[in-house]
Write a structure and sequence with these properties.
Elements (H helix, E strand, L loop, with lengths): L2 E3 L4 E4 L3 E19 L11 E2 L5 E2 L2 E2 L5 E9 L9 E7 L17 E5 L5 E6 L8 E10 L2 E11 L2 H8 L5 H17 L23 E2 L53 H43 L1 H4 L1 H43 L24 E8 L8 E6 L6 E4 L15 H20 L5 E6 L6 H9 L10 H24 L14 E9 L5 H13 L5 E7 L12 H6 L1 E3 L4 E5 L6 E6 L8 H16 L1
Parallel strand pairs: 1-10, 16-19, 16-20, 17-18, 18-19
Antiparallel strand pairs: 2-12, 3-4, 3-7, 3-8, 3-9, 5-6, 6-7, 8-11, 9-10, 11-12, 13-21, 14-15, 14-22, 21-22
Helix pairs in contact: 1-2, 3-5, 6-7, 6-11, 8-9
């Protein structure tokens, strides 16, 4: 149960890893100060703020926003830290309100990593204040507690920091406000600069996990709405009207982009993840209600059977009918609630889906017909769709952040989902390769010209039909590598490339690479693994899977795990490092909130459509012009 705190109240914290979620009616900046056992803040290095958002055990947002998620790991705080004060302030020169009294009271919620709320505090009673200490996490006798503070400062952030004992409060405040101003300025139109991808950039984000026992667990951590390798050159859209009840009692019509974010792409990305979470939780509530109804029915029927007076005859029949009626009523109520939520989510999906940019859109979305090579890479990519058995018509886009943090494995093994439209035993392998090609085309299409390249290893040439769109349009940088010699050549060049980039990054010379070393991200598609691979090639592939993503070399494997059984457990780390996808619908993915088994469907080009060739031709032409 969530504890609702008022000013001055405290509550014990039983978990070390937490999120603090801030909601406000206008953009605010967040920060945190670290204090010793006396509450003393030992200078600016003890303050997390938009200009320096990460300290050991605490991370805040780098920009002003109406919603924030602060990450806290109490076990990772320095031993000298006994107090963490969470700060909110209104940014200067933003055109927004200058005092909290002009806004709806902001709210701070401390949650576990799974989203379970622990305490909630609404910061009421503020008036002329433009900065406030919202919460305080403090340690007493090796145990942590949270206190609702709500102390406001009419003198703003400088007065707040000075009250915390910082002699350089004015200088630090100016630095913080300047950092917020810079983050806002990134949304102002400007001539696009020459873009050089940051090979080391990676962004924590919500993760899907497979329900297979061999796959890696879901990483904990907050949703980070920033993307260090991405620049925005369009003015952010005005805030969408908040959904809420209207005059007739019905919910307001959904709005595409009705989420936190500084660009429409970011707002849509966050909205899709919100829909995903809403569907997971409403389905969990429905299943829980049905389980309760079933267990209650079973208990009541057992009571009828154990009572000799009602076991036989009309009394027993009446008791059983009454139990069944109560069961039907409970299930009906649960289904009605689910149907209501599904109707709202379906209406939202019908608005959001047509508004998605190419990186998030299905291949049948009209947005592809006006496709042009972008000047900026997107923040995420659509890998397919997800749905649950209770809501089959409703599809939620499966979005993953870019750059990819792990490789992908498209399982080409026998699939139960195949039907009569796949007449031969090679069907799964062909569909798996078509899935890989569609994914490669999407990655090429959403990156600026010259910033992404695809290479293919196809030892026996079995993937030639599926690869035809990439080959015929000239989208590949080189013909597919065949035979053991081709496998060794491609893997040797890519492992050498990864080694060179790693050395340059570690030596601080990432901008001084030799002329022949490109900075474009690379995607390697491997078909029919382990055909054509010797022990050395397998070792190189494992190295690319482990080390490649950090320097912009990504892997898509099209393989049947049973084909590699001869290697035994040697390849288990390889399979675990990859996200498993399937070329046909399969319920192997789980969400990070309640762990439902979601049915995944790949994002494929509709039969007979020429959109893939059209898009790839545009990509190839832009690359030629870029050279």
């Amino acid at each position: 149960m969530t504890a609702e705190l008022v000013r001055g109240q405290n509550h014990p914290l039983s978990r070390a890893r937490l999120e603090i979620r801030i909601s406000a009616a206008a953009p605010v900046l967040t920060g945190a100060t670290l204090g010793d056992e006396h509450g003393t803040v030992h200078g600016a290095p003890w303050v997390a703020h938009p200009g320096a958002p990460a300290l050991p055990g605490i991370e805040v947002s780098g920009q002003a926003a109406t919603g924030h998620r602060l990450a806290v790991d109490l076990d990772a705080l320095p031993e000298a830290v006994h107090r963490v004060s969470v700060l909110l302030a209104l940014p200067e020169r933003s055109g927004g309100p200058l005092r909290f009294g002009a806004l709806t009271a902001p709210t701070a919620v401390v949650t576990a990593l799974d989203g379970t709320a622990i305490v909630r505090f609404t910061l009421t009673g503020l008036d002329a204040e433009s900065a406030v200490v919202a919460l305080e996490l403090y340690r007493r006798q090796n145990a942590w507690k949270v206190r609702a503070v709500g102390q406001g400062y009419a003198g703003g952030l400088a007065a707040l920091l000075a009250d915390q004992g910082l002699s350089e409060a004015g200088e630090l405040t100016a630095h913080i406000q300047e950092a917020v101003t810079r983050s806002m300025a990134r949304a102002i139109p400007a001539p696009p600069p020459q873009h050089v991808p940051d090979a080391t950039a990676s962004v924590p984000a919500p993760s899907y996990r497979t329900s297979d026992a061999h796959d890696a667990p879901v990483p904990g951590g907050p949703v980070d709405y920033t993307h260090p390798g991405r620049r925005t050159h369009t003015t952010p859209p005005p805030p969408a009207p908040a959904a809420g009840p209207v005059a007739d009692g019905q919910p307001a019509p959904p709005v595409a982009g009705d989420a936190v974010g500084w660009s429409m792409d970011e707002r849509l990305y966050n909205q899709v993840w919100g829909m995903f979470e809403d569907l997971a939780r409403t389905t969990a509530a429905y299943r829980s209600a049905v389980d309760f109804a079933d267990s209650r029915l079973e208990k009541e029927l057992d009571q009828v059977l154990t009572d000799p007076r009602s076991r036989l005859g009309a009394a027993g029949d009446d008791a059983r009918e009454a139990a069944q009626a109560r069961h039907s009523q409970l299930v009906g109520q649960a289904r009605a609630a689910l149907d209501r939520d599904l109707a709202q989510l379906t209406a939202e999906s019908e608005v959001v889906e047509p508004a998605l940019p190419p990186a998030y859109a299905r291949w049948d979305n009209p947005v592809w017909h006006g496709y042009r090579v972008p000047a900026e890479p997107p923040m995420a990519l659509r890998l397919g769709d997800l749905h649950l058995p209770e809501s089959v018509p409703l599809r939620i886009p499966m979005l993953v952040r870019l750059p990819l943090e792990r490789g992908l494995w498209i399982d080409s093994g026998p699939a139960a989902g195949l039907d009569d439209t796949v007449p031969d035993s090679a069907g799964p392998r062909r569909l798996a390769m078509e899935t890989a090609v569609a994914l490669a085309a999407r990655l090429l299409a959403v990156h600026p010209a010259g910033e992404f390249a695809v290479q293919v290893i196809d030892p026996a040439g079995a993937g030639a039909p599926a690869l035809q769109p990439l080959v015929s349009t000239g989208a590949l940088t080189a013909p597919p590598a065949a035979g053991a010699v081709g496998v060794a050549d491609v893997l040797g060049r890519l492992t050498g490339h990864v080694d060179l980039i790693q050395m340059a990054v570690r030596g601080g010379a990432a901008q001084s690479l030799p002329p022949g070393v490109g900075t474009a991200q690379q995607l390697l598609i491997v078909n029919d693994f382990p055909h054509g691979f010797d022990d050395r090639a397998v070792t190189q592939l494992r190295y690319l899977a482990d080390e490649g993503p950090a320097v912009g070399v990504h892997l898509v494997m099209v393989a049947d795990r049973e084909d590699a059984e001869a290697y035994g457990p040697l390849l288990d780390p390889l399979w675990r490092s990859l996200m498993r996808l399937t070329p046909v619908p399969d319920d192997h993915l789980a969400d990070p909130w309640v762990g439902h088994a979601w049915t995944y469907e790949p994002s494929l080009v509709p039969p007979g459509s020429g959109i893939l060739q059209q898009v790839l031709a545009e990509v190839a032409a832009a690359r030629t012009k870029h050279r």
